[in-house]
C-alpha cells in the first residue's frame, strides 16, 4: 500500500471522522485514492490555473512550492496573495466549489512534485466514502486560517516583520522562489526588500 504525506495531513484532522479511526477503513480509503490520484513533476515554472478558467482540480504539494497571484496589466504589476509550501492543498476554493471563473493565477515553481484529483473524482470519492468529505473540510479550514492570518499580518506587521515571519515559516523559501515574488507577497518592491535587508542584515 503506497502512502503519501497527503494522508498524514488528512488523518491529522481534528475531530477525525470516527470511520477513519478504524485501520481497515483507512486502508480502503488510501487504496481507493491511490487508484485515482494523479502525479506531476515540474521542472520549470508552470501555470496550473488562469483567470477565466474554472478550477477543476485539487493539488497537494509533496515537494516544492506554488503561488497564487493577480496580474494588474495596467500597472504591469503582480500581486502574490498566496504561497503554498509542502503539505498544503492548492486550488482556488470559490471557483472549485461554486464553479465560477477564477480571477487568480496559480503557478507552480520548478522542482515541485504535486498530487492531484479532479472535482469529479472527488465527488465520486465522497459518494463511495461519505466521510471523505474531510477533503473539503481540510481545504476550507486551511483557506480560512491562512487568509485570516494573512489579513492580520498585512494590517498589523511592518514589511520587515512580515519578511521575518515568512522566513521562519518557510526556512528554505529563498531557494524556491525569486526575490521578486517574495517582495510581491510582502506588498513591497524588490528594491525596497533589498534596502530592508541591507539596513537590517540578512536574518
Automatic annotation (TrEMBL):
In terms of PROSITE patterns, this protein maps to: CNMP_BINDING_3 (PS50042)
Cyclic nucleotide-binding domain mapped to chain residues: 20-126
The signal peptide stretch is: none
InterPro entries found in the cross-reference section: cNMP-bd_dom, cNMP-bd_dom_sf, RmlC-like_jellyroll
Protein known as: Crp/Fnr family transcriptional regulator
Organism the protein comes from: Mucilaginibacter rubeus
Amino acid at each position: 500500500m503506497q502512502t503519501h504525506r497527503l494522508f498524514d495531513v488528512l488523518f491529522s484532522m481534528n475531530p477525525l471522522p470516527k470511520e477513519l479511526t478504524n485501520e481497515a477503513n483507512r486502508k480502503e480509503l488510501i487504496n481507493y485514492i491511490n487508484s485515482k490520484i494523479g502525479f506531476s513533476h515540474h521542472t520549470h515554472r508552470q501555470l496550473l490555473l488562469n483567470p477565466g478558467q474554472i478550477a477543476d482540480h485539487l493539488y497537494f504539494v509533496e515537494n516544492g512550492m506554488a503561488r497564487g497571484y493577480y496580474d494588474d496589466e495596467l500597472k504591469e504589476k503582480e500581486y502574490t496573495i498566496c504561497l503554498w509550501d509542502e503539505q498544503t492543498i492548492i486550488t482556488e476554493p470559490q471557483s472549485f466549489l461554486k464553479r465560477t471563473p477564477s480571477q487568480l493565477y496559480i503557478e507552480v515553481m520548478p522542482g515541485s512534485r504535486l498530487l492531484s484529483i479532479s472535482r469529479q473524482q472527488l465527488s465520486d470519492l465522497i459518494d463511495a466514502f461519505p466521510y471523505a468529505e474531510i477533503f473539503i473540510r481540510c481545504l476550507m479550514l486551511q483557506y480560512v486560517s491562512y487568509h485570516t492570518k494573512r489579513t492580520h499580518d498585512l494590517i498589523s506587521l511592518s514589511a520587515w516583520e512580515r519578511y521575518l515571519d515568512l522566513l521562519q515559516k518557510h526556512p528554505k523559501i529563498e531557494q524556491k522562489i525569486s526575490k521578486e515574488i517574495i517582495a510581491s507577497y510582502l506588498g513591497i518592491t524588490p528594491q525596497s526588500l533589498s534596502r530592508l535587508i541591507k539596513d537590517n542584515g540578512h536574518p
